[in-house]
Structures are given as structure tokens and as C-alpha cells.
Amino acid sequence: MGLPPGTFRARMAPGCGAGRPAPHLPSRALASRGAFPRAGCLERKGERGRMYVEEYESFVQRFNEGRYHEAYEALQDLWQRNTTKRFYKGLIQVAGAYRHWEDGNLFGAASLFHSAAEILREFAPRHQGMEIEELLPQLEACLQVVLRKNEDRAGTYHLPAIRLKVEGLTEGRAEEAGS
Predict the structure, then answer these.
(1) Low-confidence stretches of the chain (pLDDT beneath 70)
(2) Where do runs of H (alpha helix) occur along 82-172?
(3) Distance of alpha carbon 81 from alpha carbon 109, whole angstroms
(4) What span, in angstroms and rounded, lies between the C-alpha atoms of 96 and 82?
(5) Cα-Cα-Cα-Cα dihedral of 30, 35, 36, 42, to 10°?
(6) pTM (two decimals)
(7) Could you tell me which of 156, 117, 114, 115 has the C-alpha nearest to residue 134?
(8) CA 151, 152, 157, 160: dihedral to nearest 10 degrees?
(9) Do 52 and 169 form a contact (C-beta atoms < 8 A)?
(10) pLDDT tens-digit profile of 142-173?
(11) Going by C-beta distance under 8 Å and a sequence separation of 6 or more, which residues neighbour residue 114?
């Protein structure tokens, strides 16, 4: 038996809401109850099998490859189209912090690591499949390295590499890269 006209069945992407299918209610009823999932959380089967918006997937891939400027640019347009997406802003700031570190701008790196952690903390323990709870201590570790470098400019410091973990997107890739 099919769904009545004006209804839909949405499947939540991993890490969004309770992970249960959305109820079978008329679209107007869902909207009036605020029952639509957060933007970017609906699976979009048929778009080359993507679970997340293309810009988000591209950001994660480029970031994990250490291509921070490209990662920043991949998500920048999506965030500018909807600046209420603080989650994206936080991720952009993480990539920007790495860029500032690479350019020797310690103040900019420290500022962005700190503000990114503050923003992303709102989305813990996970959001859009990303393990935010695992990311936060890594951001703090990066911030501490930047602060130590700022106090000891002649010293040699290496910023820890952060690997973003996103359900359905990054599993198995770390093992593949190591083989």
C-alpha cells in the first residue's frame, strides 16, 4: 500500500536525530510541528548514493587529506548561502585555523581553534554523522600547541593532524590509506 498524497517518508542520515524514519504525516503537519530533520541530514539516495550534501562530503575528504584551503573553500559557499548553519561555520574555522598555522599566523590559528571548539561543542556528541565528542579534545590539543609555539617562537612544534570521522563517509578509508 502506498503513501497517501501529500506525505513522504524521510530516512535520517546517520547521526541526525534519533535515526528513526520520519513519521508518515502530511507535509503540512510535519512542518507545523517542526518535525523536519535539520538541513543536511536527509539521505539523498539517487544523487550518486550520497548520504550528505556534496560540499560537506568534499570538505571532509579534503580536510582529511590535509588540503585545508581546499576544504575551507568546499564548505564556504554552502555556509554563505545559509549562514545560520553554525555547524558549517565551526568546520570552516577548523580548516582556517590550520591555514593560519601554515602561514605562521599564531594569533589567527589560536583564535579559530578556540572559536571552532566553542561552536562545535553545541553539536556534541555527534552531528551529521560526525563524531564531535572525539573532535573537541583534538581541537584543544591543537590550541595548546599553538599557544606553546607563541610563547617559544624559536622552538619547533608540530600541529597534531585531526582526522574527521563521519559515519558512512570515512569508515574504512584510514585502513585503506595505511595498506
Answers:
(1) 1-49, 172-179
(2) 86-103, 106-121, 132-151
(3) 25
(4) 19
(5) -120
(6) 0.70
(7) 117
(8) -10
(9) yes
(10) 999 999 999 999 999 999 999 999 999 987 54
(11) 143
